[in-house]
Design brief:
The complex is a heterodimer of chains A (115) and B (111).
Chain A: E1 4-7, E2 10-13, E3 18-25, E4 31-37, E5 44-50, E6 53-57, E7 64-70, E8 73-79, E9 87-94, H1 98-101, E10 105-106, E11 110-114
Parallel strand pairs in A: 2-11
Antiparallel strand pairs in A: 1-3, 3-8, 4-5, 4-9, 5-6, 7-8, 9-10, 9-11
Chain B: E1 4-5, E2 11-14, E3 19-25, E4 30-38, E5 45-51, E6 54-58, E7 61-66, E8 71-76, E9 85-93, E10 100-101, E11 105-110
Parallel strand pairs in B: 2-11
Antiparallel strand pairs in B: 1-3, 3-8, 4-5, 4-9, 6-7, 7-8, 9-10, 9-11
Classes of the chains: A mainly beta (115), B mainly beta (111).
Amino acid sequence: DTEVTQTPKHLVMGMTNKKSLKCEQHMGHRAMYWYKQKAKKPPELMFVYSYEKLSINESVPSRFSPECPNSSLLNLHLHALQPEDSALYLCASSQPRGRDTGELFFGEGSRLTVL
Amino acid sequence: QKEVEQDPGPLSVPEGAIVSLNCTYSNSAFQYFMWYRQYSRKGPELLMYTYSSGNKEDGRFTAQVDKSSKYISLFIRDSQPSDSATYLCAMVRAGNTPLVFGKGTRLSVIA
C-alpha cells in the first residue's frame, strides 16, 4: 500500500463548483508535489512545496490553488474548472534531496471529472 | 527533439520472456535516472534508480545507463503477468529541477 494517501479517489464536479483534493504523508518528507496526468500521457508537474513553501509553480492556471498547511498535508483547491481539466491528479512526496535525485513517492491519485 | 524519447508500445510478450525497455535522451546534464512502474488507475511506483552510468540489479530487474550514448534500459527477466503495466523512464538534472518523464511503454505479459 502507498504511504501517500489521497482523497477523494474519484470526484465529479461542475464548472461552477468549488472542491478540494487532499494529500497526506507520514514519512517525514519535506517536499510535496502535485502532478496532473491525462490518459496515456506521463505525469506533468504542477506545483512543488519544499518545507511548506511553494517553490515551483509550472505556470498553472489560477483556477488551481495549492495549499500546504503543514509538513504532512497538501491540498489542491479547485474552482471554475473546465472539462479539459479532467484528469488523474497525483500527489507525491520526497526527502528534500529527492528534488535532485527524482526519488518520489506517489499516491494513487484522485480521478477528477469536470462536467 | 524532445528531451526524453520512449517508445509507447504497446509491447506484448509471453510469460517467462526477457523484456527490454529503453529510453534515449538529449540533455547530457541528466545525472539521475529512474524507472517508474504504473499499474492501470494507480499512481507511479519507483522501481529502479541509478546515478550516472552503470548497471543496477534488483531481483528480476536490471537498470542500465550509458551516458556516452545517452541511452537507458530496463531489463525484466522471467517476466510475469503481474509485470503488465506502463513503465515510465524519468531523469533529472541536479539543482532542484523538475523530473522529466518519458511517455511510458505499455507492457502486457501474456500467461
